[in-house]
Amino acid sequence: MIMAGRRVFALHPFAAVFSPGDLVAGRLLKSYYWLRVPGMTLGTVRLACFLPCAAINSVRIGLVCHTKQTLFSVLPRSPGFALVGRVDELAAILPALSSGRMLLHVSSTICPPVKEIDMNAGSTPGSKYDLVVIVKTAVYNFHNRQTFRSLYASINNFSAPTRHPFRIGIVFSVGLPRRSGNRTFERDGFNVTLPDRAGEVLKDIEHTHPLIIRRLQEEILQYNDLLVGDYEDTYYNLTTKMMTAFQWAARFCRNERPGFLFLDDDYGFHPTNLRRFLARLGADWRERMVVGLEFNKPPTVRYGNDARTDKWALSKREMPWPRLPPYSSGRFYFLGYEQLEKLAITMLFTRPIPIDDVWLGLVMTKLDMRFQ
């Protein structure tokens, strides 16, 4: 559930009706979609009224559109499974296709939650942003977040002066502190000890957990800029953090449709230069921007070659190929809303791997999308 003020919202309205393995189709623009799987009958759902509308049994595999629009394969999941249909039309079934992971708290000013019946009524007054900055930060990094807030107090959220050509909102994406364990993780038969900041915060976690929870609760009450996900906030859950942020952005920013800047909490931006950069882009940058520092097919890091690189290693089960797909450094990248929404949907059909930047590269490869 999602809490914003005193209201509670369900991020995924079908979570209580369908099991995590179910796939649900929906109605959009008077077109009906269904999922066909060999030897199985799956009920479909009219998303407009949240009621079962049909049951289908077919030998054909795919998501089929009644309106005879152009069909093409997207979101491949395995050699024996494919979805068929337009990605932009699949946006309507995004909540139903979710893995069911929950957000515990969201901002009530930046892309605020609204009731389904209000989704087409326009933005909440004061909530319209041209660019939403999503800062990826560990729950333990209170000092980094406070430094970030102080640095950008003059442009962030409601304090943003109207004279600026682009309004910028800032949110921080965090999980929950780990309850037990230390900085050593078992990774596909290998023990990996996290170095540097990612490992230091986990050294005495059993004793510091109550304090971190209390400080997080105080931060939620004092500021209105946290996205708190229901997962342990560790280095190897960064992919979960990424998916949670993308699902929030695609679901709750659908009315405003801003552009997005993703940043690590030890990086920043120059407000004046950022606005100049945005002003030089085409008029559709809020929808179609895909900008980042791309690594072009670097070699896959394997365990045991060098202890200093084990943090980024992937097993052959996770990444069977000797080279990685093109991907961007996670330190920063820009995405327009239309592109982010496609990625958010495709993530639901892509098996996660623990290195979030590489995983995003895999998702983008499915859509033939590249950073510029």
Descriptive account of the structure:
The protein has 372 residues and is of the alpha+beta class. The protein has two domains: 24-93, no CATH class; 103-366, Spore Coat Polysaccharide Biosynthesis Protein SpsA, Chain A. The chain is 24% helix and 26% strand. The chain contains nine helices and 18 strands. The strands form six sheets. The protein has a seven-stranded mixed beta sheet, with helices on both faces. A three-stranded antiparallel beta sheet has the order 3-4-7, with no helix packed on it. Strand 3 and strand 4 (31-36) form a beta hairpin. Helix 5 crosses helix 8. The protein is globular. It starts with a strand and ends in a 6-residue tail after the last helix. Mean pLDDT is 71; it is low at 1-90 and 92-99.
State the secondary-structure class: alpha+beta
Silhouette: globular
N-to-C order of helices and strands: EEEEEEEEEHEEHEEEHHEHEHHEEHH
How would you state the average pLDDT, rounded? 71
Summed up, the helix count is 9
Percent of sequence in beta strands: 25-35%
CATH architecture of the largest domain: Alpha-Beta Complex
Low-confidence stretches: 1-90, 92-99
Helical content class: 10-25%
CATH level 1 class label of the largest domain: Alpha Beta
